[in-house]
Amino acid sequence: MSAVLQPSPGKNGRRPSPPVLPSPAAANAAAASFAALTARLDYLDAGDIDAVRKAYRFADEAHLGQIRASGEPYITHPIAVAAQCAEWKLDAQALMAALLHDAIEDCGVTKPELIERFGAPVAELVDGLTKLDKLQFNTREENQAESFRKMLLAMARDVRVILVKLADRTHNMRTLEDVPREKWGRISSETLDIYAPIAHRLGLNQTYRELQELAFRYLKPWRYLVLNKAVAKARSRRRDLIHKVQRDVEAAFESAGMAMRIFGREKTLYSIYRKMDDKHLSFAQVTDIYGFRILVPMVTDCYTAMGLLHQMYKPVPGKFKDHIAIPKINGYQSLHTTLVGPSGVNVEFQLRTEAMHLVAESGVAAHWLYKSSMPDVSDGGERLGTKWLQSLLDIQNETRDAAEFWDHVKIDLFPDAVYVFTPKSQILALPRGATVVDFAYSIHSDVGDHTVAAQINGAVVPLRTELKNGDVVEVKTEPDAVPNPGWLAFVRTGRARSKIRHHLKTMAHAESQELGEKLLAQALRAEGMERPPPDDEANRAIWEKLLRFTGNRSRAELLTDLGLGKRIATIVAKRLMNMMAERGEKPDALLLSRERYTAHEHVTQGSVVLDGSENASVQFASCCRPVPGDTILGYLGRGEGLVVHAEDCAVAKRLQHKDAERFIGVEWSDEPVRQFETGVLVTVANGKGVLARVASALASAEADITHVDMDEEPAQDATDLRFVIAVRDRSHLEAVLRNLKRTPLVMRARRIRPGH
Length: 756
Description:
The protein is of the alpha+beta class. The chain has four domains: 24-219, Hypothetical protein af1432 (Orthogonal Bundle), CATH 1.10.3210.10; 229-369, 2-Layer Sandwich (Beta Polymerase, domain 2), CATH 3.30.460.10; 502-668, no CATH class; 676-752, ACT domain (Alpha-Beta Plaits), CATH 3.30.70. 47% of the residues lie in helices and 16% in strands.
């Protein structure tokens, strides 16, 4: 079967219309010589064309003797890639990079050699492309995630890298038939999952559609063949109807004195397949296979033209979209309307200006199409939706792990957007499903970090509320507020996720180091040393020897590991004391006897005082939810930091039985600085407004409700309500329970502790 859906550029530099399906051999023959490329370079000046010719000669010589899978000279591939870039009117540097993109990896050419011959900008583009040509994204291995990260960062710094790469992938997909069949699935999946979404994100709609169509052809050849026949049959059946619509529209515009160009648009086979698969439709039920594009001179003409169409045919309710007033994230602008045409067939119309059409088909590449000389890359970049590229650099600043970077970015590759307003009426586009927290981070990371509350359309809403088109969103911030780890469960954008994780990691690192210092000091007191030796010149050798023993690179890293529970403070303290003893220092006998006399019988380290300000370094176990006044124990989980349990918690008892050396004594501060969560079970008689009464009783007792749950079974005479509430201490909890028991319709109220 043929490997080409879109027609290859002919020697006159223009694509034929309507599209045909030439063979791969024909496509390659058209690009087999530099003459075929020069015919497309009329937008460049003579000096630029000469520079491109020099790059061609160098590439031709470098690839001499190399053959493609089709049996053709390898140089046909770089020429075809450069031809696609020329169609986008990219500058001479990008065309030179397209011709040279395989030179470093396949031909042994070095980057310094390219810098010397063609200049640093071209060499940087080629270097950015070199790492990308041999990528395979079908596994989750670290090296491939790392390569993808480099590609996206190269994109963010210079969008020409990804434009050349997309041209390269498009030509490879057009000639995939020559590749061994066992590789079709991997390459096609990679194209659908990675490259087509990037093309869409950058507004390269023509390339996006072609990549999807080619990938579909090789990934599911049987389905492709069946759909292709069905569409061809439907096309022949409805040819007269489509011609009638086109003639009627042309006549209506002519009588109205409006200039326009109209041409047919057929839904791609892949988009038909996706619609059938997603909505469980048969082919006969897909009604919008055919459509028209109408190009008019001015923006106001788009709306006038729509009025003319609505007078001719009845519009389908709910099928009108104004992407001119509110463009898509990738810069796409058009009016869309679906009308009921002759014989009751739905026909979609897209109305746009010539400039909008340029952006709609070429996206970010239209940035170069507007001007023959290379414009400043940042000029107009945001206007065409490339702000996303810059956000990649922000995510990179917080995320050094390549696989995590890819997880963040793939969320943002699919621009199904909602459009919301700031209080000052600025429009922001966010992915569908984005929440108030995503909105806050899209404004600025400082706004996101300090967000405490929000209003949508004037009403107070939870931070996890999903945004809808047209919402006016206002966030409230507090200088002392910090990101909540729970936000990670509902944020939608990669930017928000990476900012939250970065802040939590930084905060946890600092707090864990502080806790580790406290644990080491207390473990040393149990060994008879008042405090750790200072990290100065006199004790440098001792610390270096201790770090070799623990395997840490620095004192700070060791203390962090102690705070996270990755190292046991008592073992480190004993080793340190042995080293001090070798140097002739002895433990303080008085301190030793006092510490051992007061040590808790169940624990092997000193006691840590908790007041609730410990944040990420200390967790209060959800199995028993201890509050001030409960007797408590601390467990140093491996990598979790300090987990605090109630002493009579069954989970803590099991851990103590098998892991006793990881327990440390903990006690409450006399003045805790915050409230603590605990569980309450309230059994109520069913009656009108009972939940409101219970909530009111909790509020009057100054207990904050953080979660509520109730029986899922149909209500009988009584129902169990389970609350998680925040209280100051045990006596406050007892007051809350007394208040609940006095409430009408409440039968019982007690504390629940699942770990008991």
